[in-house]
Amino acid sequence: MISQTITIMYLEVKGKDINNIGYKAFDNEGYLTIVSEGSCYGLEDMLLRNILRCFGDDYKVTDSYDYERPDEPEDSDEMDVAWDTNLPWEIYCNEKDTNDVIVDVLIDKSDISRIGHTSYGGSDNMTKIIADGDTCLLEAILLRNILKCFGEQYHIIEELDVPKDMDDADPWDTDLEFVTNLPWDIYMKDCNLNEGTRKVELEKEDMQSIGCQSYGDWVLCNEKTAAIEQILLSSILKCFGEGHCIEEIETYTPEESPNEMACVKFYTSLPC
């Protein structure tokens, strides 16, 4: 059971976390390019921007664009996202497994556009954002903090399950709509502004947003989001005490469902 004593910690990243971003990294004319699945783009975009700071304040994302997988059929609608950076490929190769520099993750108003796949203003002029069911719980943590960039009075007031906008979607496979009290006209006016910069605050209760199953000292995550969840989990554990951490990582495919996506199990130092 999670303690009711609230301890606030800041979300941190380290240089080595660059290995948790995307599924492919390559040398692009001497500089690093990373490719990510489209559904995880918003979360990874915010994290990558901050991870690059661990290598030096001058390193950043220089461009992002749709990336078509070479092995995808020509009629496929699947599209990933690539980030070009100004981090030299040589530095990336030399430091990606050893860079222990830690920085606090910084967000601003513009990051609200990186949350979810659809946003709109309802008849009440309040901002609604719809996020993919696979990433919505993680996005809720970031959205809660991003709204504060607009003002401490803004927050998520309701979460609603909504059907996926796909003809062949499983009726049990839903997305999540965040209903906020942020006026839509303010969203439209400020959503591209790099203002209101702040750190991401985490609470013990955020542990409940990590993984699809937990028991005792382990948390089970979908492989699709596990790399992002590892970054968040590492900081959330510190809400319970600085000594708590991820002690072991195990990847496996459930024996009863060998065709299902592999899972990642994180064993932590947090007692039951």
Overview of this protein structure:
By secondary structure, the chain is α+β, with helices and mostly antiparallel strands. It folds into three domains: 10-104, no CATH class; 106-199, no CATH class; 211-268, no CATH class. The chain contains five helices and 18 strands. Strand 9 and strand 10 (126-131) form a beta hairpin. The protein is globular, with a radius of gyration of 19 Å. The mean pLDDT is 91.
Précis, in short:
The protein is an alpha+beta fold and 272 residues long. The protein is built from 5 helices and 18 strands.
Strand order of the largest sheet: 3-4-6-5
Number of domains: 3
What share of the residues lie within helices? 10-25%
What is the subunit arrangement here?
Answer: single chain
Topology:
Layout: E1 9-10, E2 12-14, E3 24-28, E4 31-36, H1 41-51, E5 61-67, E6 80-88, H2 89-95, E7 102-104, E8 106-107, E9 118-121, E10 126-131, H3 136-150, E11 156-163, E12 174-183, H4 184-190, E13 198-199, E14 201-202, E15 213-215, E16 218-222, H5 223-236, E17 246-252, E18 263-268
Antiparallel strand pairs: 1-14, 2-7, 3-4, 4-6, 5-6, 8-13, 9-10, 10-12, 11-12, 15-16, 16-18, 17-18
